[in-house]
Structure formats: structure tokens, C-alpha cells
Amino acid sequence: MADYREMWSQLGLDLELHDQLCAALPPLFEGAFLHQKDRPSGMDYFNMVIAEVHGLRIKELVDHKRNGGFVAGSFCVYVPEELVMALGGVMVGLCAGSQFWVPEGEKVLPRNLCPLIKAALGAKLSKTCPYFQSVDLVIAENTCDGKKKAWEEMGRLVPTHVMDLPNRKSPEGLALWRAEVRRLVSRLEGISGRKLTYDSLLSAIDKVEAKRQALRELYETRKADPVPISGIDALVASQIAFYDDPDRFTAMTAQLAQECAQRVQGGIGVFPKGTKRILLTGSPIVVPNWKVHHVIETTGAVVVVEENCTGTRYFTGSVDRSPRDLDGLLDALADRYIRDINCACFSPNDGRADDVVRLAREYKVDGVVDVTLSFCSTYQVEQGSLQRRMKAEGIPFLALETDYAPGDEGQMRTRIEAFLESL
Ligand code: BJ8
After folding, report:
1. Which ranges of the sequence are coiled-coil (predicted)?
2. pLDDT of residue 1
3. Buried-exposed string 242-271: b where 16+ CB fall within 10 A, e elsewhere
4. Of the residues 79, 101, 147, 287, which should be mutated to test ligand 1's pocket, given the most ligand atoms within 8 Å of the CB?
5. Measuring CA to CA, how many Å separate 199 from each of 205, 243, 274, 403, 414?
6. CA 4, CA 389: separation in Å to the nearest integer?
7. How large is the angle between the packed helices 246-265 and 198-221, nearest 10 degrees?
8. pTM of the model
9. Model confidence pLDDT, tens digit, residues 16-36
10. 120 CB under 6 A from ligand 1?
11. 105 C-beta closer than 6 A to ligand 1
């Protein structure tokens, strides 16, 4: 990797602490990925992106800002990245998936909060995340209670705009969300000094749609048996979608999808035909959290689809491009997010169980594993209704709870082994 220390120092990183974080990533990545056999060659690009995660992409963000652009960060798939792009910004998902940041987050947040929220605050407080150090604005959202309150702390550390998400998918909820989308536009226009236009929004919608389409094509190939790509490789591609350059990501993912489609035609798989197929659902699995996929795929099964925000929820549905004016297009954009994404923060949220059943059939899975992060109460409460629905549909179901700390892999492996034996 090139020497980026000067850039990191200018971004205000705590270099000593950051060195410790950087030292932890390569062994984690090697342990989770590089032991795999017969990976598609298209994964070389994604390996490189992970190797350069604090280097090349950060340099691109710094250059973008030098050229007058801005960078926004988010933690949720409800935040419409199209608006940031349409106003000349770059959107990055702030990963918050590492145990490294949790103790720092616990200095200002209660311990009994989900690790994703604690890691988010910890990453900012510890000054070890160059993405966080690059953002001009965090676009947060009122989804779960933990996030909602944590944004008050976040707002003391970095400019933060909180979008108010409705609790219900009702006409009133949609009206609130459409207004929130417009409030975000005003905030971004203020930052960028630009005015949102119909053409700039349409072109951003097309760019994001192309990215989502490439992921859909990749996921489509995972319906095959033998499956042409491991779950953990597909997961890392999905995780990278949140911060890579969108055009490059689209091109590289489309190429990977094409290679996987050819593998399917040739009957080439990464696991033998007939390997038990798992649908994973639950809380988001953000970079560099690869624990559950790794355990499942080294226990004799393969993850073939993820119904979560680092899986199908990210690319589900499309924005209706038919409106001919900016107002209509903004409504269409707002509608896609509320209509198509089924998060447990909504009540009721039957759409998620419908999605799990549909995907379980489409991907011909043998079982569903519902993975919740510790203290993620919305998804944990929803586990009961999801389990009842799976039982009614005759789909085997396993509930797992985990966090970012190492140490529970052994116990998880035992439970997964028992589940696989029961299938
Ligand atoms: S759309 S899942 S990304 S809110 S922070 S809910 S893990 S307790 S992230 Fe989410 Fe948007 Fe919904 Fe998806 Fe649980 Fe933690 Fe809350 Fe979390």
C-alpha cells in the first residue's frame, strides 16, 4: 500500500491508534477470505478495495473535496444517496462494524446498546476512521431508539442532519417522509451551493439504479446449485457498495456477475452441488463484520442470500422515473424508500416476513438464520413473529444473537452444526 500517513495526519487521525486498527484488518481479512478455494477471479478487485480501504478511496474523497465537492456519511439504507450525488457530493456508508471502536463508544453511551451504534460513536471519538474524518455532514435517521438518541451525541462531534422516519407505512407516514426528503434537499443545497434540478436528480437516480442492478445480477447467480460465489464474497461486494466510487463499483460488480453467470452455465461452484443453502436475515452486517458468514461457510453450508440492509434491502425496488418534473421525481424517490425497504423499525412490518418467504423459495434455501446484534431490540422482538411465520410456511428457522467481539464463534458453530443436522 502507498504511504498515506501525510493524508491521514491532515485528516486529523490519531495515527498511533489508527496503526493498531490497520494492523488488525489484514489477519481478519485473510482468516475470513483467503482460505477459500476457487473464488471467482472478479473478487481480485474487491480484495484490493479492502486492502486499500483507508488509502485509495480516502484519497479520492480528499481530491473530491479539494475540487469543491462535499462528502456525506450515513448509517442507514433509508438515506437517499441519490440526493447527495445529484448535488455534487459523494456518499459513504460509515461502516461501524468493528469491535475496535466499541470501548470508545461505551465511554459516552450505555454498554447495553447495540455494537453498531457504539462503534459508530467510537469511530468518531477515537479519530481512527478516515471516512468519518472526511465527511462534511452525517445524514442520520430516527429509526431505532438507540440511534435516535445517539445522534444527539453525534451532533456534538460532527455536523449531523437527522431525517425523521415515520413509524408506519401509512399515507401520513409517507407524507412526512416526502417532506423530510425535501428538508434534506435544502440542507444539501446549503452545503453544496447548488440547486437541485430535474436533470441532475434523474442522472443520480440512474447511477444508483445501475449500481443496484449490478448487485441484483450478482445475487441472481446465487440461485444456482452449485452456487458460483460464496456468501462471504457476495457479502463483501455488498458492503463495498456503500463507499466505493459508484461507476467503478457498478462496472466491477457487473463483471463479477457475468463471470458468475458463466460459472453457472459451466456448472462450476465454490461448494459442491447439494451443499445446504442458508438465507440470512436480521440486523445489518457491516464491514468488517464477517463472523457469521465465516462460521456458516466453514461448517458445511453456504449462505445464498441475505435479507438485510447489507443484502437485498439495499437494492430492492426501483425509483419510478416517469414523473416529468422535479417535484414528481422527488416524490417517486421518497416512495421507493418507504415502499420497498422493510425494516423492523416500522410497525407493523409484515413485508419483511413476506420477503423472507419469497426469497427462501426463489433461492431454494434449506433454512433461515435470523442474526440479530445484541441489544437490537426491534429485530429481536420481531424474531417471534418471523419464527411463527417460518413455521407456518414449513421453513426451518434458527435465531442467533451476536456482537462484534470475538469469542462466541465456538458456541455459534455448535448451534449451526446442530441446525444443519436437523435439515
Ligand atoms: S433500515 S436495519 S440500516 S435502521 S442501530 S436497528 S442494529 S439497534 S441499523 Fe438499520 Fe436502517 Fe433499519 Fe437497515 Fe438494530 Fe443497532 Fe438499531 Fe440497527
Report:
1. 198-225
2. 61
3. bbbbbeebbebbbbbbbbbbebbeeeebbb
4. 147
5. 10, 24, 48, 43, 54
6. 51
7. 30
8. 0.96
9. 999 999 999 889 999 999 899
10. no
11. no
